[in-house]
Write a structure and sequence with these properties.
The protein has twelve helices and 21 strands. It starts with a strand and ends in a 6-residue tail after the last helix. The structure holds pyridoxal-5'-phosphate.
Length: 415
């Protein structure tokens, strides 16, 4: 489903013109399509229907309460990486019992909080964390359900900053050492072995890395089962399924399932997935207004009211976002750098890009901004963060109000 389409020369989100939303809520503005997001979840969920499975949405991609809430209603579990994300899931109506907790640096406070709420699985990333989990759980007279995050040593062929499954990565435990960690876990009274897990990277647009990594991961399962025959229940293939930003051709849910199902369907374990970007990435856009068009002898700059603090992906990962006008124009194209007002040379959305010839005051849209957009926004340069709107058919909900100047200093004081 493409939620963002032109009708009579105007860009819509579902049945609502973006122009109207910009007029009502101002810019920069994140706009999300509820039906795209829930549809992505449902598509993946359906592709695995022949086996026991749970799709755990990776909250860090977009942690707005309304989006978590819609996915919770649709039956999703959640992949969380902090106590803050767990708090959000609970406040949005999600079930702690469907949460898997990832991340290399879980603190004692976070472990306590998650144990008290009764989460599904801790994805353990080091021996030190395993011992800490054991210690905290015994103190609380509980057992922490764990999976070891196994680093299968497979190159996901993606951007180096979002590649996590290679040998030299800080994430996970190398497959050679994983069984030893499971042996240690089997001797600890405060932990219970529940699963095996991997997450090899992000924006992976081929199925082959998943196939290679899954084969390696599944090679461990029988030995882990011998250590914990009664409690081993899950195999988690992680997230990372890519989306189309420009000209990529990522697998559809059916293609993804067709590649991995034959490997996992007879293992007798529940299959978990942790997609983030796939669920929300193309379900959101950032609407921005052109403040100035600055022409210099060598370049044209289109200066927008959105900046790197609102959407940092181009600056951080050199990532590509399609940029289109809200009002389709027939006046041809210009070649320009699309930049924000922040005082950093890295503050650009595109360089030497051919875009529709827009003028000052006109609206542009940065597409594919639903994942790692607002979630990574900051107040750098003391810029209030954007508002967020969720569209469902012709219904519009403001799901986060725009920050005010007062919000910027709340929590601070003059000494
Ligand atoms: C970030 C992350 C995900 C989600 O990654 P996407 O590329 O957004 O699908 C899943 N699992 C873990 C452990 C992560 O760190």
């Amino acid at each position: 489903m493409n939620a963002f389409e032109y009708h009579q020369g105007e860009l819509f989100c579902e049945r609502v013109p973006l122009r109207k939303l910009a007029a009502k809520f101002g810019t920069p503005l994140y706009v999300y399509s509820r039906n795209h997001i829930v549809g992505q979840f449902a598509g993946l969920d359906r592709a695995f229907r022949q086996i026991d499975h749970l799709v755990c949405y990776a909250v860090k991609a977009n942690s707005n309460l309304a989006i978590i809430g819609e996915l919770a209603k649709a039956g999703a579990g959640f992949d969380i990486v902090s106590a803050g994300e767990l708090y959000r899931v609970v406040r949005a109506g999600g079930e702690p019992g469907k949460c898997v907790f990832s991340g290399v640096g879980k603190t004692v406070e976070e472990i306590e909080y998650a144990l008290k709420l009764g989460i599904y699985i801790f994805n353990v990333e080091s021996e030190a964390e395993l011992r800490q989990l054991d210690c905290v759980a015994r103190r609380l007279k509980k057992r922490a359900p764990i999976a070891v995050r196994v680093n299968p040593g497979v190159d996901p062929e993606t951007h180096h900053y979002i590649s996590t499954g290679k040998e030299e990565s800080k994430f996970g435990i190398s497959i050679k050492r994983a069984l030893g960690v499971y042996r240690e876990a089997s001797r600890l009274a405060g932990v219970e072995i529940r699963g095996v897990q991997m997450h090899i990277g992000s924006q992976i647009v081929k199925t082959q890395p998943y196939v290679l990594a899954s084969r390696k991961l599944l090679g461990l399962v029988e030995e882990v089962r011998q250590l914990a025959p009664a409690t081993l229940k899950t195999v988690d293939l992680g997230g990372g399924i890519g989306i189309r930003y420009k000209d990529q051709t990522p697998p559809t849910p059916q293609q993804f399932a067709a590649a991995v199902l034959p490997l996992v369907k007879n293992v007798g374990l529940r299959v978990l997935l942790e997609p983030g970007r796939f669920i929300v990435g193309n379900g959101g856009v950032l609407v921005t207004r052109v403040i100035y068009v600055k022409k210099t002898p060598v370049k044209t700059f289109v200066i927008t009211d959105a900046a790197m603090n609102d959407l940092i992906r181009p600056a951080l990962y050199s990532s590509y976002h399609e940029i289109v006008p809200v009002k389709a124009t027939k006046t041809g194209k210009i070649k320009a750098d699309i930049v924000g007002p922040v005082c950093e040379s890295g503050d650009f959305f595109a360089e030497a890009r051919a875009i529709a010839a827009v003028g000052e005051g006109e609206l542009l849209v940065l597409k594919s901004a639903g994942a790692y957009g607002m979630a990574m926004a900051s107040n750098y340069n003391s810029r209030p963060r954007p508002a967020e709107v969720l569209v469902n058919g012709s219904r519009v909900d403001l799901i986060r109000r725009r920050e005010t100047l007062k919000d910027l200093i709340s929590g601070e004081k003059i000494s």
